[in-house]
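seq:
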Amino acid sequence: MSTKTLSKPKAEPQIETRERLILEAERLFAEKGIDGVTMRMICEAAGQKFAGSVQYHFGDLEGLLYAVFEYREEQLQPQRLAILEETREHGLTGDLRQILRVLFEPNFRMYAENGNISYMRCHAAYLTTHRPRGVDHPVDRASPATSAMREAMDLLDRRLAVLGPDLPTRRLECVGTMFLLGMVEFAANPSRYAIPVERWYDELLDMMVQAIAVLPRGANSAGR
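struct:
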């Protein structure tokens, strides 16, 4: 009589080394600032005995930072696409608030629904330190993970064309920083705001709409 060998239950899938490095880098960049993190620190946090793991997978810290953005933007893209579809269906492709929803609401939901603030903290650090140095974001290289974001940015450019070339992009970076820091501050101490996070998000959008659309100061008022 033959006996059947019971198969062992499958182990839970482990996070791949590359993904673990990305997640630990995001957390450390958020906590210490991008310039305050070394490749060795990330390897140790990810439980990697090989100190060159970051270099092996990403080349350098900037390559890893880029990978963090691409990893998260790929996750957020389905939500952006859904809001874009809603925007088209309701004829709101020229509505500033709706366009900003496409760009920022998925980030908001990541915190509101999952409690993840690390990505927004990391992104805020990038905008204040590394973006001015010319360090690329996936949107700059037309990454497929940013196709919905780029479509929304095109809508914004058309909506704000009256402001002149390049100004919509610069304004977007400014209001983006406003949004990210506003959410980071809320997450640090929600009780200080005494309002639901959804209301704070709506108030941030209201402020961003006003800030991004204000007319440039004319030559006659430049010195006032």
